[in-house]
Each structure stands twice: as C-alpha cells, then as structure tokens.
Amino acid sequence: MTTKQAPSTLQKMGLDSPMALALHLPARYEDETELLTIEGAIQQGRFSTVQTQGIVIRNQVLFRPRRQMVVTIEDKTETLNLRFLNFYPSQQKQMAVGVNIRVRGDVREGFQGPEMVHPTVRAVTPDAPLPSSLTPVYPASAGVSQAVIRKAVFQALRDPSLQESLVEFLPNKLFAELLPSHDWPNLQAAITYLHQPPADANTQSLFERTHPAWRRVQFEELLAQQISLKRALAIRRERHAPSIIKDKGRSRDKKRQEESFEEGLLKALPFKLTKAQERVCLEISNDLSKSFPMNRLLQGDVGSGKTVIAALAAARVMDHGYQAAIMAPTEILAEQHYLKMKEWFEPLGVQIAWLSGSLKAKNKKLAQEVIESGQAQLIVGTHALIQENVSFAKLGLAVIDEQHRFGVRQRLEMQQRVGSELFYCHQLMMTATPIPRTLAMTYYADLEVSIIDALPPGRKPISTKVVKASRREEVISGLQSWLSRGLQAYWVCPLIEESEAIQLQTAVDSFEQLRQALPEFKMGLVHGRLKADEKAAVMAAFKANEIQLLVATTVIEVGVDVPNATLMVIEHAERFGYAQIHQLRGRVGRGSADSVCILMYAEPLSVAAKERLQTLRETSDGFVIAERDLSLRGPGELLGAKQSGDAMLRFVDLQRDAWLIELAQQAAERLLKDHTALVERHLERWLGSRAEFLKA
Ligand code: ADP
Ligand code: MG
Q1: Which of 265, 266, 271 to mutate to test the pocket of ligand 1 (most atoms within 8 A of CB)?
Q2: Superfamily assignment of 261-452 in CATH?
Q3: If you measure from the C-alpha of residue 248 to the centroid of ligand 1, how many angstroms do you get, rounded to a whole number?
Q4: In whole angstroms, what is the distance from residue 452 CA to residue 677 CA?
Q5: 34-130 adopts what CATH topology?
Q6: Could you report the per-residue pLDDT of 559-606, keeping only the tens digit for each?
Q7: From 627's CA, which of 219, 373, 513, 636 has a CA 20 to 30 Å away?
C-alpha cells in the first residue's frame, strides 16, 4: 500500500534519488534501545523520556471532565496509566485488554497515580527485540510518516549506486594536513552513522551536531560551497575588463579637457571626503587598475556617503573614455541618483542618460540610441538597464546600489548580463545592510568587501521617540512648530502588506487629515501608484523646499536625500521590520541640524514589536540593528536571498560552525589547484542544480 503512495510524497520533498535520501539526515533521535520495567520507568520517567512495556489490564473511556481514554498496563513490578485525550477507535482496539504494548513517553503524577500522557505505543510480543541503534526522526512534511521516510532511507543506504557516489575521493593526505587533530570518519561511514547511530553514541553531540560524523558532513557541504564560489572567482579573473589606471592612458581626453572629471568633481564637492571614504576610493582604484572585472561590495550605513564614491569611480572610468552605469532598485532612488549626477557632472560637460521601465517608448528608444552610440557617458536607471534591450558602446563600470533589495531573480539576471561577454565590466555593489564576516565568507567568497565605517563629520545623532498612536494630536502640533522653524519633515504611512490599495488609502487619509490640521504649510504625497514623472515632480519640489511636509508610503525607503528634512514621523511603526525603520530613519539626520524620528505605534503591541521599537530607540548603529535582525530572521533573508542561502547550507550553522568555513576554504583552494578532476564530482554530488543560485 505504502509503496504505491510513497514515491510521490517523497518526491515532493525532493527525496528522489538514493543520494538525496542519504543526505536527508535526521533532525533528532529517539532512544528506543533501552527497555525499563514499569517500576524503573516510573522512577526515571520524571526526568527523561523512557520506554517500558506491559500487558493491558484495563481500557476505559471516561467522559468527565472530558471524553478521554485511560489504559492501564501492568508488568511484574508495577502498573501505569496511559491517558489519551484524543483517540481513534483503532487505538482502542490496539490497546485492548490482554495485549502486550511497548510505550514511550514522560511520566508525571496524575490524579490516579503515575501516568503517561499520549505516549507512543506499539503492540509487540513481550520478547520482541529492541533496536540496536538510536531511532532517527527525520524532517518531514505533513502527511509523510516517519516510517515511510525511514524505510526509504534505509533502502537507499543499501543501494549499490549510492556506495559509488559516496565513495571517498578527497585525498587522505589533504585531510591529514588540514585536519591533523580531527578524527573524522570517511563520508560514507559518517552518513551511515548519522542515520543509524549505535545505542552507545554520544547523543548530545549528535543532537547538537558537533559529533565528528556531523563535522565530516558539514565540512563536505562547506567545501562544495567554497569550491563553487572560488570557481566563480577564477572565472572572473579569466575575463577581461579595461584596466583603468589613474592619470594613465588619458592622453586623448587630456587634449580635450584641462581637468579630469574626477578632479572636477572633487573640486566642486562642498565637503572633504572622510578617511573611510578615501580608503574605499583607494581600494576601488586598485581594483579598476586590474585587467579583470572588479567585483566589490561597498558596505556603509545609511547616510555614510556611498553615492559620492560611486560618482568618483564613474568619473575615473569616464576619464578614460568608458561609460559608467548606475542602477538602483526603485524608480525613486534611481531618480535621486540621476538628479545628483546631473548636479555634479553636467557642469563638467558629462552626457548623462536616464533609462527606466516607465519611460515612454519614444524616450526609451532615444536613450537606448545614445547609450549604444556612446554619446551617453553616464547612464542612470532602474534594472531596465539590463532588462531592456540595451547595448552599451563601451561600458567600463556598473554600479548597483542597494544591491540586496533587488530580488534574487533580478540579481541572477544582472550577473548573467554583466557577466556575459557583451558586458564585461567592473562592478561595484553598494548596500547599507552590514553583512557579518562569516556570511560574507560563505555567501560571497567571490566578492571583495569595502566598508565605510564612519559617518561624515558634524552629523548629530537622530533622537528617536516611541509614541502611542493615541497621542497623534500632540505629534501633529509638534510637527507644526517644527515646520514653523523653516524645517521640513516626512510623514510615513504604514506598510500594509495584504493590500496596496488599502496602503494607498491610508496614505491619502493621512494626507487629507494633515492638510486640514496644518493648512498653512505646503504638502506633497508620494506613493507607489504615481507615475514616475509625477513622483519626480513631488520629490523635486520637496528638495527645493517648495513643499514642507512630504507624506509618503514606504517608496521613500531608500536613498532619498534632503538634508533640510529633519523630522520623520512613522505611523504604525510596529508593522515595520528593523531594517526598514533603520533605512527610513536614515532619511533624516543628513544635515547638521538636530533630527528627530517619531515612531508611532498602535496597541496592542506584540512582545517582538515592543523589543524592536525599544532597540531602535536606543541605538542607531546599523551593525547592532543588523545583528538583531539576523538573529531574528536568519542570514538568507537578510541578504534578500532566502532561497539560495537555505538551499546551500543544510547542515552548517554559520554561527556554530564558523571555524569550519576557514578549513573548507583552505581545502577548496588545494583541491582547485591540485585535484581539478575531483572538483566536478564533488560539486555534482552536493549541489546539483543548486549551484546556479550561488551566484545571485
Ligand atoms: P548613503 O551612503 O546612505 O547612500 P549618501 O551618499 O546619500 O548616503 O550621503 C548622505 C549625505 O551625506 C549626502 O547629503 C552627501 O552629500 C553627504 N556626504 C557624503 N560624504 C560626505 C562627507 N565626506 N562630508 C560631508 N557630507 C557628506
Ligand atoms: Mg544611498
């Protein structure tokens, strides 16, 4: 019966080959190897789960206080009650008087003496043998029984094809050198052990996944991951990108212009670069001088000044006659960049093109033409830059801002496009989300990381206040006096995930209410439904201080830069995540004036939301906030690549097993150098089709 049904349900869980089944390792174990007398079980069962057996001497269905079944078993030593608050008629039959049953559970003191509530029950002959290994409990989806999985796994472990694919091919010598003090079993032994650990196994280390057998498997997994990342790096190094060396090879342009774009921009900036910014510029400069594509991630907290770094890199590339592109995940953010680049580069005579999905066909075509002819030196836009049929005349640098906010699919597309021969160029990715070192090592081995670790000088910390929604009137009158001082403010409306329409409605409602309450000020409203040019018009007016209060949905979340806007009110702050509020709040505190962020919340507040708001009030340190976020959501989601992260590391916990990563890195290097033939087999074994996702 099960044989017919099992394959499809197992296949749905991805368990479609002996190898997949072998790698479906237990989540935990149950110890059914020991059988206590009932007397012994009553004693020990108060501290741990125990197994015992006896003959059923009574089976009663009671109706008070509620319907339940109480079964009493007996052996030579004692009697024990088993209580079932839910039960099927089949269970009544299974536990009929006179049957010998084996039960497993915890013992507690009931009204009628010691009892087990909902033990696991098996009807067996009194002398039925005990298993000699611990019983594995497998991760399962609903509707698949442990018995079905166990049977399939044990069958797979005996499959001759599996023996072959698990054959140890990592050279012993390599292990001996890398892991002198680790007495790890070979892979096949490790996997067999994990499925069928002997009765005397160290259950704690099995449970905590620190047992040598687990280590062996974790190491294999990390090795596969590191190999594929390193291979991506090797492939990148084989590729060609223009080597751009400062002040070299600029002769042709020099005749045309006295001053380079880079010098011109530096001179025109109203501020001096911070030390951190200068360091990052040097790192980028070094990468650009190489003849293979740069692949650098620039990490810097909200407001740390990443844009100017991108602009300087672009200037360098343009000085050498190449095009530079800047891409952002949303229209608003891309537009901000476009305006900023116009402000900085147009006076220097740079031709700038704008390309987004929402451009009218005619304008899009025009933009594509100037990009293709090379007339446009700097191109700013959304990911339309890679999606639409755009070909660049001579692209030297692609900057991808807020990289993690692009979806996994978009990032894959970008990788494929930017990595394709048409498109080889230097790449600079930027993000405000700090990535812990262990994560960077495992997800991004093929990535150089630069960090801006200090904010520009003169910034005043943003003071954050947490306020109940019932004090809305007070907040509005505070807003009034703020605006009266000539300052500007944001009013951010709640995120409503279920419905964009409702989200829009609440924004419109708030806008109307504020307009009535504060008629003396000019207000604007931006939301996702506005057309690009309408949005741009409102943003431009806000920037020019023609609008004092900007009511917005979360479309302003990233990158908007208006230094005179120093107050932000966030409605229903309890609905936002850590990163979102941190990003939003980063819109204020950009100038030298005191800035305030008011987090309004509606009750009731969940424990998690309360803690979140409290943390956000106490700190504005992006690293602290990211860490809280990480412990809450797990690494994959933080990087916006849940799928890839989860699929990649099934047995490794980045926090617990950080030290293994380094070992795996070293082993990967050695294998790639000395044992190239093994590399393919190893990857095939571990990653199969998942390898592609790694690159996103
Ligand atoms: P983010 O890193 O969040 O993208 P931006 O690049 O938008 O930050 O910079 C935030 C603000 O800081 C901008 O107004 C920018 O002009 C300003 N800024 C950048 N670098 C400096 C600096 N070295 N000194 C003073 N202000 C700076
Ligand atoms: Mg930015």
Answers
A1: 271
A2: P-loop containing nucleotide triphosphate hydrolases (3.40.50.300)
A3: 29
A4: 41
A5: OB fold (Dihydrolipoamide Acetyltransferase, E2P) (2.40.50)
A6: 567 889 999 999 999 988 887 788 888 888 877 778 999 999 988 888
A7: 219
